[in-house]
Write a structure and sequence with these properties.
Keywords: 2Fe-2S, Disulfide bond, Iron, Iron-sulfur, Membrane, Metal-binding, Transmembrane, Transmembrane helix. InterPro entries: Rieske_2Fe-2S (IPR017941), Rieske_2Fe-2S_sf (IPR036922), Rieske_Fe-S_prot (IPR014349), Rieske_Fe-S_prot_C (IPR005805). By secondary structure, the chain is of the alpha+beta class. Helix content is 24%, strand content 30%. The longest helix is centred in the N-terminal third of the chain and has 32 residues. The chain is elongated and about 80 Å long.
Amino acid sequence: MTCPAPQKHLTTKRRFLLLCASIAALYPIVRFIGYSIPRKPRIVEIASPLPAGGFHLGPDFVLFDTGTDAWALSRKCTHLGCTVNFHEKDNLLECPCHQSRFSKEGLVLHGPAKKPLPRYKVERLKDNGGYIVII
């Protein structure tokens, strides 16, 4: 005499394992598709103008103004994603995690980072001299 209960238990266990394997296989695909979908740009307004040679340190970017040109750089290190800090006296950005260094233009001065910091579009406000940074 055989008992049907163990067979049902094995079927449930197989279904569970199949479900886990399917999720594990689909996760990287979903992550990849998520990166390929463009995200909506975020607009940050800086109301006050900067002096020539000045900078504004935001949570996601650093804004520089030479008086004739203004640009913003991402504060996310291209090595492992740590938040870089701007050292005004040395005129460079440095990652506290692995000491990658970047110029004010975002170029790599010292690794381990290999890629420059991404630039964000900056527009000057005509009415008050402030800026709009499009992230």
